[in-house]
Design a protein that fits this description.
7-stranded antiparallel beta sheet; alpha+beta; Thiol Ester Dehydrase, Chain A; 7 strands
Length: about 150
């Protein structure tokens, strides 16, 4: 089954808010398996002024953060709502992150993510980031579902 989540639906699943909510849409959702997140990298994104003046580039750590948010939304949307109530998905580790090309504002960054495995509350994911079909970054990471405090 393929689904789509818009920004308002993502806000209902994740605790992130602007300017730190980076993903605008989650499409091509295969429940608890894979999805594509859309990040509209804008000329007025919060990092543009300081990273780097006159030559803005989306920081690699924000690409990794967007991967994590996409994975959290994929997981939260796929598990039973009662089970996810009062829970959060926290990033645990990042492995094999590679930044291949700079992400320049005024583009659509597409993050193809996949859940590799889960063991209890711990999930492992992998993802690739593209702009117009060109690979910009890739990574593997782990996250855990924890109780909200």
């Amino acid at each position: 089954m393929t689904e789509k989540l818009d920004k308002n639906q993502i806000i209902e699943l994740l605790p992130h808010r602007d300017p730190m909510l980076l993903i605008d849409e989650l499409i091509n959702i295969k429940k608890l398996f894979s999805a594509t997140a859309i990040v509209n990298v804008k000329k007025d994104s919060f990092f543009v002024q300081g990273h780097f003046p006159g030559n803005p580039v989306m920081p690699g750590v924000l690409i990794v953060e967007a991967f994590g948010q996409a994975a959290a939304a994929l997981t939260a949307s796929g598990i039973d709502k009662k089970e996810y109530d009062n829970k959060l998905v926290f990033l645990m580790s990042v492995e094999k992150a590679r930044f291949r090309n700079p992400v320049i504002p005024d583009c659509k960054l597409e993050l193809n993510i996949e859940a590799i495995r889960s063991h209890g509350r711990v999930w492992k994911y992998k993802g690739e980031a593209f702009v117009e079909g060109k690979k910009m970054a890739d990574a593997q990471w782990s996250a855990t579902i924890v109780d909200r405090k």
